[in-house]
Design a protein that fits this description.
CATH topology: TIM Barrel
Order of helices and strands: EEEEHEEEHEHHEHEHEHEHEHEE
Distance between the termini: 33 Å
Shape: globular
Strand content: 15-25%
CATH superfamily: Phosphatidylinositol (PI) phosphodiesterase
Oligomer: single chain
Mean pLDDT: 88
CATH class: Alpha Beta
Radius of gyration: 20 Å
CATH architecture: Alpha-Beta Barrel
Largest sheet: 9 strands, mixed
Helix content: 10-25%
Number of domains: 1
Number of helices: 9
């Protein structure tokens, strides 16, 4: 049965044509790629795991929020469609990912402020105006996401493992729907892909149902210490172009009831709250600094700390002010057990294959 997929990375028949990746018709029964080329999170104490995907999944409490961090970063390259497909296959309740603003005002799904050679290379037929991260003569300024258009960014193949010691079983093999399309995609394209997944007959009934209601946890990668990374003259009080475009897409795609916006930048969240009184907002924290009463007074609905900060006492204090608690980045069932005992409401994990949500 033919289905629409995002699979230009697999169009190896016409390597000389300089066109960006497009949606094409291919068969689910055919091979989606020949071989994939080779292929950072916030600071946290992590334990590297080498368990095979899907082995002995720990059952989480009913209603628990299982979030796939950057898709399924421990299994597939981060923030890519194959990674999100893997997370959907594992029936996460939320897809967690990062957002940046491009030179042409589009919103793309990517973590870093620049396109780095540790994660990405150029496709062979990329136009000459797309800078090559493997070229030592190309500056970080030229490779900044904000300096590139969404079309230019689509020419990168981000299938490289930046830390094999930390992600020993991450692989870049093709997946049934996304194929080998490990490119930087727009937020709209990710939403399209989730809708495609939810209607695809090759997935199980349970997988399609889970995908049809999966939540989106979108991180605005704004940093007060590096305003150039977004570069939209944000004034710290009202939404900049970045926040405005994110909210516009959420509204246009009618996913507000399935979306949380998170950030380490409290001003970004407060600006969003100033124009949207309803959307859930999560404050990311790598060290204890902001009081829970302040967060609640600013309209923040969730506290999302480094897992080491989510002690039973702190979780209880957060709950007493009405905040949900969903820590990052969990990579083992042992870590999850400690956090569940502390009372957390969900977890953000690189390894969603280690968990399932009850019953």
């Amino acid at each position: 049965m033919a289905i629409a997929v995002f699979a230009s990375a697999c169009q190896v028949a016409s390597p000389t044509v300089s066109e960006p990746p497009t949606t094409t018709e291919i068969s689910t029964s055919s091979s989606l790629a020949t071989s994939a080329p080779e292929t950072s999170a916030p600071p946290t104490s992590v334990t590297t795991t080498t368990d095979p995907p899907g082995s002995d999944r720990y059952v989480l409490p009913v209603g628990f929020d299982l979030q796939g961090h950057r898709g399924a970063r421990g299994l597939k390259p981060e923030n890519t469609l194959p990674g999100f497909e893997m997370a959907l296959d594992l029936m996460v309740t939320t897809l967690e990912f990062d957002l940046h603003l491009t030179a042409d005002g589009e919103i793309v799904v990517w973590h870093d402020p620049v396109v780095d050679a540790s994660k990405c290379g150029l496709r062979p037929s990329a136009p000459a105006d797309v800078p090559d991260p493997d070229d030592d003569g190309v500056s970080n300024d030229a490779l900044a996401v904000r300096a590139l258009t969404a079309e230019q960014l689509s020419w990168y193949q981000c299938d490289r493992n930046p830390d094999p010691g930390r992600f020993p079983i991450q692989d870049a093999s093709p997946t049934p729907l996304a194929g080998s399309l490990y490119s930087i995609v727009t937020l709209d394209s990710l939403i399209d892909f989730v809708e495609l997944y939810a209607s695809d007959g090759s997935k199980s009934d349970d997988q399609r149902l889970a995908a049809s209601g999966v939540r989106f946890n979108m991180e605005t990668k704004r940093k007060s210490t590096n305003p150039e990374a977004i570069g939209d003259t944000f004034d710290g009080e009202t939404p900049g172009l970045f926040e405005s475009r994110v909210l516009e897409i959420i509204e246009d795609r009618d996913i507000a009831d399935r979306t949380t916006i998170q950030s380490f930048d409290i001003d970004s969240l407060r600006a969003i709250r100033s124009v949207d009184p309803a959307i859930p907002l999560a404050f990311l924290e790598s060290r204890s600094a902001v009081g829970f009463e302040d967060l609640a007074s600013w309209g923040i609905t969730e506290w999302s700390p480094n897992l080491d900060l989510a002690t039973e006492q702190r979780v209880s204090e957060a709950h007493s002010t009405g905040l949900g608690v969903k820590p990052w980045t969990i990579v083992s069932a042992d870590q999850a057990v400690v956090l569940i005992d502390a009372g957390v409401d969900g977890l953000i994990t690189d390894r969603p294959d280690l968990f399932s949500v009850g019953p």
